[in-house]
Design goal:
Elements (H helix, E strand, L loop, with lengths): L2 H11 L10 H8 L2 E2 L3 H10 L6 H9 L3 E7 L2 E6 L3 H14 L2 H6 L4 H15 L5 E2 H10 L8 H11 L3 E7 L2 E6 H4 L8 H16 L4 H8 L3 H11 L3 E6 L2 E6 L12 E4 L4 H4 L26 E4 L2 E10 L3 E8 L5 H18 L2 E6 L2
Parallel strand pairs: 12-13
Antiparallel strand pairs: 1-3, 2-3, 4-6, 5-6, 7-8, 9-10, 10-11, 11-12
Length: 360
């Protein structure tokens, strides 16, 4: 297998170049989870994989409680299918919580603070209520629980990790919180061995070809646990080698025969970039540093023929969308035309007329 073939498979398996599912929740489930630090970018990450869907149509899956936004892995926000949110969180969160003990101690957050906060929110959100973050913070302060110095954020984060809270829908464009048991009552637990196997299957089917190291990084699991999950599903996968690295992908799944140099405008934090520890197949090493800011904010990327070849940004005007592309190197006319088509697709998603600009 060549590096280029790896990216072609990933474009297809991630449903960027090949449509496999028609509903937002199924797209999310096929990948296991999808990065959602930036809410609007995460909506586009799903919309990119669902041609002809618009932003309101994708967000409806959040409002209708089919996908849930929470912190199930690596301490970062992700979308997960509502049915999956409990077992994924129960599998991955304990290790994250254990790794945060020192930070909790530094902030003066102990078991009694979390217990008081937990009961406070359970009472306030009972009856399927939702509250915006500001109201949640004010609730803590009114009960004498200080939220200074990021304490409030860490309390919300910890209680989401415990499966008490999750994000709900937006109110006046502001995210709200709800009790997980109310917002996603269909969510179920799994025994540990079943959860490890299912998460491994979702990852390698949706992200493959990928290595065990990639899976360990993406999931936050210990190597031994990730290996156990992979071993359980090994018969359903096939392996390929590139140098000394072993890549796993779903058996009997071929890449599209059409290798046209299509372009895609990926949002920041997209799984195509963030879903792997090793990104050498996606981008030249000397350009890797240009994918993110110094504080870890991953930029939206331009992908052509499976490779990250530039970044882009958007500017929303009253009725217009301005997309400014910044190539890593000069684009040929055909590549510029491909980017223009990709920008039009994003404009349709937002329901806006598009102006495409080029930055040097």
């Amino acid at each position: 297998m060549t590096a280029r073939e790896i990216t072609w498979y990933r474009l297809a398996n991630q449903q960027i170049s090949r449509v496999r599912y028609g509903e937002p929740a199924d797209v999310v489930a096929s990948l296991g989870a999808m990065q959602a630090q930036d809410y609007l970018a995460a909506l586009w990450a799903i919309g990119l994989r669902l041609p002809e869907r618009t932003e309101p149509e994708v967000e409806r899956a959040v409002v209708e409680r089919k996908i849930v936004r929470t912190w199930p892995m690596r301490g970062t926000l992700h979308f997960v299918k509502a049915e999956d949110v409990r077992w994924i969180t129960e599998l991955l969160a304990p290790r994250i919580i254990a790794g945060s003990v020192r930070r909790f101690q530094q902030l003066g957050l102990d078991s009694s603070v979390f217990a008081r906060s937990r009961q406070l929110f359970v009472d306030a959100l009972a009856g399927n209520r939702q509250l915006a973050r500001k109201a949640m913070i004010e609730l803590l302060e009114s009960a004498g629980i200080s939220t200074a110095g990021q304490r409030g954020n860490h309390i919300l984060w910890r209680l989401a990790q415990e499966g008490v809270l999750c994000f709900a829908g937006r109110a006046v464009k502001q995210p709200t919180f709800a009790l997980l048991k109310d917002w996603a009552p269909q969510a179920r637990s799994r025994d540990r061995s079943s959860a490890l196997a299912e998460l491994a299957m979702r990852y390698f089917a949706g992200h493959g070809p990928a290595t065990l190291k990639d899976f360990v990084w993406w999931s936050g699991l210990k190597v031994s646990d990730a290996s156990a999950g992979l071993d359980t599903i090994r018969s359903r996968l096939t392996q390929e080698k590139l140098g000394s690295a072993v890549y796993w992908r779903l058996r009997n799944y071929s890449i599209p025969s059409d290798t046209e140099r299509a372009a895609y405008l990926l949002p920041g934090f997209d799984e195509f970039v963030l879903g792997y520890k090793d990104r050498s197949a996606l981008v030249d090493h000397q350009q890797d540093a240009r994918l993110a800011s110094s504080n870890g904010i991953f930029w939206p990327t331009v992908v052509i023929d499976g490779r990250v070849v530039g970044t882009w940004k958007r500017l929303l005007k009253k009725t217009e969308l301005v997309v400014t592309a910044r190539p890593f190197a000069s684009f040929k006319k055909a590549d510029k035309n491909a980017v223009a088509i990709a920008a039009e697709r994003y404009g349709l998603f937002l329901g806006r007329r598009v102006e495409l600009k080029w930055a040097g």
